[in-house]
Every structure is written in C-alpha cells, then in structure tokens.
Specification:
Layout: H1 2-27, E1 42-43, E2 46-47, H2 55-74, H3 87-111, H4 123-144, H5 149-172
Antiparallel strand pairs: 1-2
Keywords: Membrane, Transmembrane, Transmembrane helix
Organism: Conyzicola nivalis
Transmembrane segments: 6-25, 58-82, 151-170
C-alpha cells in the first residue's frame, strides 16, 4: 500500500496540473497568457518552438505543480516519497522539468520540419516521444531527488499512460488536433 501511495504522490504533480490545464484551455481562462514562449522567434527559417507552447501552459502547469507539491508536502510525510524535500520546491522542479521536456521535443520537431500538432515520417516513434517527453525529464528529476529507481520507473510508466489518456481527452474536447 505504501508503494502505491508513493507512486500516486509522484504522479499527482504531473497529472493534476495537466487536468487543470485542460479545464483552463476549454474555458478560455488566462487568455492573456496565450502567447508563444518563443515569441515567434525563428531559427534556420523555422519556428523555435511553435505556437502551441504558450506562457499559459507554462504558468498553469508549473503553478499547478507547485500547489500540488506544497499540498503533498503538508500532508502526512509518509504519503509522499519525496518528503525530505519541501513540497513546493519539488512541485517547481516537476513543473519546470515537464515544460523543459515539452520544449525540447518541440524544438527538435521544428528542426526536423514537423509543424505543431503534426506527425512526421516516423509517426509511431513521434507519438511515443510526444507522450513521454515531459514525463521522462520529470523521471530524471525524481531520480536526482533520491526517489528509488523502481518507484520512479513505475511512476514514469504510469505517467506515460496518463499522458496518453489526457491526450485523448484534449482531442475529444477539440483542444488539440493531430495532422498528418
């Protein structure tokens, strides 16, 4: 039971901000932050990150992860595997790491000429990377924070699955599209 609670505590700072972001996008909240993080910058004639990586996503995701981390930190110490660290700091690291993974993936896709929400030649590989980009960087952060490898791996695998489900939800809500 303890391992299950720990895995949930590792997933919560990833999952809950993602759900909040879906609601924020669906309701059109924080529209003032709906500006590309890259400011429209280009490198080699291609967008740096593209129009779908916005400040709204960064603020909602990172802020949400900080709140979730702080709540976990305030809960019973045995409930969170990273209880040796201040919860808000863990949340900040998780939020920034998740965004960094998303940005790195977008940066590489733009260099390869794959547009935002588009699939390239390697669609299966690309879909897997799209689902695992942020989760993989968060996994590395958890390892750096001293989370045991089996727990971090279990949370990573579950995070990949959860990201796949939220991806389906965002498409069903018409918040995200996938173009071939």
């Amino acid at each position: 039971m303890q391992s299950f609670l720990w895995i949930v505590s590792l997933l919560a700072p990833i999952l809950l901000p993602g759900i909040v972001l879906i609601v924020v996008l669906k309701r059109g909240w924080l529209a003032r932050l709906n500006h590309p993080v890259d400011g429209g910058a280009r490198l080699g004639g291609r967008p740096l990150l593209g129009p779908t990586k916005t400040w709204r996503g960064v603020v909602v995701y990172t802020g949400g992860a900080i709140v979730v981390g702080a709540l976990l930190g305030a809960a019973d110490a045995s409930a969170a595997v990273f209880h040796e660290w201040p919860g808000a700091i863990v949340g900040l690291l998780v939020g920034l790491a998740y965004n960094a993974g998303e940005f790195a993936n977008s940066f590489v896709k733009r260099r390869l000429g794959v547009g935002s929400s588009m699939l390239g030649r390697w669609r299966t590989v690309q879909q897997a990377v799209d689902l695992g980009d942020g989760v993989l960087v968060v996994f590395a952060v958890y390892l750096a924070l001293g989370v045991p490898l089996p727990l971090a791996a279990a949370a990573g695998i579950a995070g990949f699955g959860v990201h796949a489900l939220t991806d389906v939800a965002m498409r069903a809500l018409r918040l995200k599209s996938r173009r071939a």
